[in-house]
């Protein structure tokens, strides 16, 4: 298979249903998801190096889901699209987030990205995920999209945050506290 096609040499590219400029918001949205996928791959490799096989496997599964998100957002065909991302995909992440969150110490202040290298990689994923979400919101203002993909990205950024904190806890590394932060998160009151 030949890698280069020369089809985009004049600044346009193919999407499902036609061609658009490479700076089109649709390309910006799924391109940012592609960037997030690469960051997720780096985090998965780091997790595997540290022997965190379950986290690495989860991240590799997320990479598949991100590719589905990008595919859904590349759909510019005016006919009814057949989307890959389904509504339940975001809900699948919620018990994982809860479990990871339970591994980390109680949070009372804002934290900065870092601690361990793995946590730093996961925080990069979180911030790129938030940017992807913003790009998809902009795309949705101009074109119909699969809203399940937007919901998934919103939940996924929470997953990356919880995974970063759990990674630090597993490695015995403290989160990096934002030193000028007041206590903004309050401990939950115990139920009677």
Automatic annotation (TrEMBL):
Keywords per UniProt: ATP-binding, Cobalamin biosynthesis, Nucleotide-binding, Transferase
GO process annotations (BP): cobalamin biosynthetic process
InterPro entries: CblAdoTrfase-like (IPR016030), CblAdoTrfase-like_sf (IPR036451), PduO-typ (IPR029499)
Alphabetized SUPFAM superfamilies for the sequence: Cobalamin adenosyltransferase-like
EC number annotated for this UniProt entry: 2.5.1.17
Cross-referenced Pfam families: Cob_adeno_trans
Keyword match Cell membrane: no
Top-level taxon of origin: Bacteria
Transmembrane regions: none
Catalytic reactions of this protein: 2 cob(II)alamin + reduced [electron-transfer flavoprotein] + 2 ATP = 2 adenosylcob(III)alamin + 2 triphosphate + oxidized [electron-transfer flavoprotein] + 3 H(+); 2 cob(II)yrinate a,c diamide + reduced [electron-transfer flavoprotein] + 2 ATP = 2 adenosylcob(III)yrinate a,c-diamide + 2 triphosphate + oxidized [electron-transfer flavoprotein] + 3 H(+)
Transferase among keywords: yes
Gene3D superfamilies per record: Cobalamin adenosyltransferase-like
Pathway: Cofactor biosynthesis; adenosylcobalamin biosynthesis; adenosylcobalamin from cob(II)yrinate a,c-diamide: step 2/7
Uppermost EC category: transferase
Gene Ontology MF, one: ATP binding
Domain Cobalamin adenosyltransferase-like residue range list: 3-166
Membership in a protein family: Belongs to the Cob(I)alamin adenosyltransferase family.
Subunit organization: Homotrimer.
Protein name from the UniProt record: Corrinoid adenosyltransferase
